[in-house]
Amino acid sequence: MTVRYYTRKGIHVDRVASAWLLRRFVDPAATFVFVGEGETVPGAVPFDISGAELGHHRGRCTFEAILRKYRVRDPALRRLGAIIRSADLLASADETLEGPGFDLIFRGLRQASASDHEILERGAVLLDGVYQVLASPRRRRRPTRVRGRRKPKGKRVPRVQKAGPREEGADARGR
Question: Which DSSP string corresponds to 104-167?
Fold first, then answer.
């Protein structure tokens, strides 16, 4: 079943990742159309457009809405979803350390690409690589959360006292 999807022009991290997710894990033959604000494509499924089922809901991004709708239960994709949400909603309370970097990378893709389709192609390569790392049994881990950073446990390193004026001819150890 090939489905045609549409979203707004000028795609960024959530729309790129959502198209990648649809093509890789829902419908390998999916096609994408990019429209101006307020435009629709008859017979196509909208995503990341105001009011669309596949869009932002309850603090979640479009990528996560697609995971939920199509019942994709892959833990690596859920972790990737948290990173995408953090990149897309930079003021999110659930910001990950990876989120701002993803935002920057996808802004760069947008500036370096001639079309939304080119951004999709380039973004797919990046997302394939990140997915492989997150899915790897050797590297399974959750995205690193920014909030609630803890100080490392263990011995405290004593503070170094500021040295006073050195005598002329003294070396670094004061000799």
Answer: HHHHHHHHH-SSHHHHHHHHHHHHHHHHHHHH-TTS--PPPBSTT--PPPSPPPPPPPPP-PPP
